[in-house]
Amino acid sequence: MKFYTFNGAALALMERSLRDGTDPSETEICEADPTFPIKTKRSKTGRVQKWREIKSKLVLSEDFVAQCEEPSHRIPRREDLERIFRESHLTTDPESASVAFSIHRSWRETWKSISSVYQTNVKKFGLTRESFQHQLDTCSCKVGVTAEEPQTSQTTTGANNNVETVSDDEQDDFEGFPDQSDSNSEDSEAETYDLFEEMDISARDPDAGIQINKRPRAVTRHDYQNSIISRDTLEQHIENLSDTHNVHLKVMKVEKTTVSMTTSIGDNKEVSLLGTMKTFACHRAGIPRRKRLSKRRRKKSSAVGCSFRVKIFTPDEESQPLQVRLFPHHCNHTPGSEEDSCYLPVHETVKQMATDCLGVGMTAQQTSNMLQSMQQSVSIVNINNGRWRTTLTRKELSQLQYEIRCSKRVHQDDWVGTYAKAQRLRDQGVCIFFQEYDPDNEDPDKRPFVLVLQTEWQRQMAERFSPNSVWTVDSTFGLNSYGLPVFSAVVPNQNRQGLPIFYLITSNDVKTNHEETGVRLGFEAVLQRMTTRPNAIIIDKSLTEKRAIERAVQNDPLSWEDGTQTKCRLLLCWFHVKKAWTENLLPKLDGQMAADVYDRLCELMLQPTWQSFDDNLAQFYAEYENVQQVTKYMRGWDCDEWRSMWVRAGR
Ligand SMILES: [Zn+2]
Ligand SMILES: [Zn+2]
């Protein structure tokens, strides 16, 4: 990969191009800079294409052109390199006012000064280290660059972008400044651990880097903080560091090494200690590589070359304390950002919540919704999201669900486990109603197992969006290992998106009233916590649901006004009514009759008054007198239980 540095004419042209929003012609580019790279030789507009590509990465900052990711750093002009170098390299000695005695700064100081103003990343059209080194070599002071190269963002920043932009069919014929910036960023990990030696040098001669003809101060890649801790506080220390610096640490390297240190206080004798150096790195450390999962799918690597490190030296001699070296600088990523978090492990608390929700029988989608509404809860809000993820992907939830099912096969009907989960959810303030399974209790209300889950956020949403709106009750069966039904109610928010406002799980033993009782108790618990009511509740055509909710609402003072029910009126969803007809009746009839019956039923449904409905219905029965299937089916809808819930007249 070759890199481009603008010459003056090309940069001026780019500035105009950015300002006016127009692109120059092939000839104009060529005139400005004959060495301007060509996107592809096959095209006559190869330069313009490359121009647009480069332009898309640039912005116009005040009066100069900059790379869009670092808008405060000027893109240098090739011709200016010498001037830029001299301006940063030569300073006037403040003690002698004469200009003649200018001081040559060390290469490090010079580089630092340049990179504070100019773009010094070649991948971002900055100046190259080679040109810098050339300037340095030709300077009268000949400070020279030591074996250690100037460490800038060059080595790591943008390396990821690089991977992105190199595609197989792209021809990049530009022969520009060569650069070794693709070198392995972990190379310098092999440094020796002469920590105290380094510190001694800087202590003896703090100005080592600024004075002339001195060996530049040897420092490691980045500044570090050093501390000495006792062995038993290591775990806590790592924990504290992780929290303070929002970092998820992973062990990168463990190796035997020697470190020199002073033996004890007051005794300045230095000894070399043999021990183990354990290097922890930020989870975004390393060289970005694309992992190939299969021939087609590619997963983006989490590595962005972050240089955050914690190095722990454990001397073999057990009487010696631990040395901790902290390199506290994240780079190329923002700890806690969304982009960052998808590479983090899930926090144990969140995983436990998910396991609990799935464990009591909720589906992956329901669990996902539940976790979403728990994000603001105390237990999740306090999680450091630079270290942990607080959500699970659908794939992870499915995996978790699968694991739970597998383990369930061993102890079927493990009610004890369910209690433990319910207990934990209650401790988290999520479970608002819980009743143990007690099938032999004298009081029928105390027999079924009932669990109602609602987060504080869900309660607030229910409170806010229920007035003048409608709840839709949704039930799922048999998706969990117990085969317990899960009921939930959904209320539309201001954007008409359905928000689940609670989950209700109950036992449904056959030939008992468990389910009806459970749903009733659950609804009562939910309504009790609210001061607003929906106008209507839409349910499935299920007698259990109907009777349960009817009874729950019967004694609810907020649903009634002067003996008339004004809120929480039960309705059947027209969509589901039609679906029921289509699925249960129509297949039994032949083509034309099915179509006719369907039309007549829809007509009946839309009758605005009971008078017109009755007239229409009488006609309907007369017409299909001889088709028993139709009349019999119709009786199922035309009964007191249901008719007011699906005919418009009853709404
Ligand atoms: Zn010099
Ligand atoms: Zn980092």
Per DSSP, what share of the residues sits in E-state strands of 2 or more residues? 15-25%
**What global shape is seen?**
elongated
Bound molecules: zinc ion
Which structural class should the secondary elements be placed in?
A: alpha+beta
How many helices? The count is: 23
- Give the tally of structural domains: 4
Largest sheet: 7 strands, mixed
- Give, in spatial order, the strands making up the sheet with the most strands: 13-14-17-16-15-18-21
Number of strands: 21
- Determine the oligomeric state from the structure: single chain
The overall pLDDT, averaged over residues, is: 79
Task: Give a verbal description of the structure.
The protein has 651 residues and is α+β, with helices and mostly antiparallel strands. The chain has 4 domains: 176 residues, no CATH class; 153 residues, no CATH class; 225 residues, no CATH class; 74 residues. The protein is built from 23 helices and 21 strands. A 7-stranded mixed sheet has the order 13-14-17-16-15-18-21, with helices on both faces. It is elongated, with a radius of gyration of 37 Å. The two termini are 71 Å apart. The structure holds zinc ion (2 copies).
Note the topology.
Elements: H1 8-20, H2 26-32, H3 46-55, E1 58-61, E2 64-67, E3 70-74, H4 81-89, E4 90-92, E5 102-104, H5 107-117, H6 129-138, H7 159-165, H8 195-204, E6 225-229, H9 234-244, E7 249-264, E8 267-282, E9 291-292, E10 298-299, E11 309-315, E12 322-327, H10 338-341, H11 348-359, H12 364-374, H13 378-381, H14 394-408, H15 415-427, E13 431-435, E14 450-453, H16 456-465, E15 470-476, E16 486-492, E17 498-506, H17 514-528, E18 536-539, H18 543-554, E19 560-561, E20 564-565, E21 569-572, H19 574-584, H20 591-605, H21 610-623, H22 628-637, H23 643-646
Parallel strand pairs: 15-18, 18-21
Antiparallel strand pairs: 1-2, 2-3, 4-5, 6-12, 7-8, 8-11, 9-10, 11-12, 13-14, 14-17, 15-16, 16-17, 19-20
Helix pairs in contact: 4-5, 11-12, 11-14, 11-15, 12-14, 17-18
The structure holds zinc ion (ZN) (2 copies).
The site of one zinc ion has 6 residues, from loops.
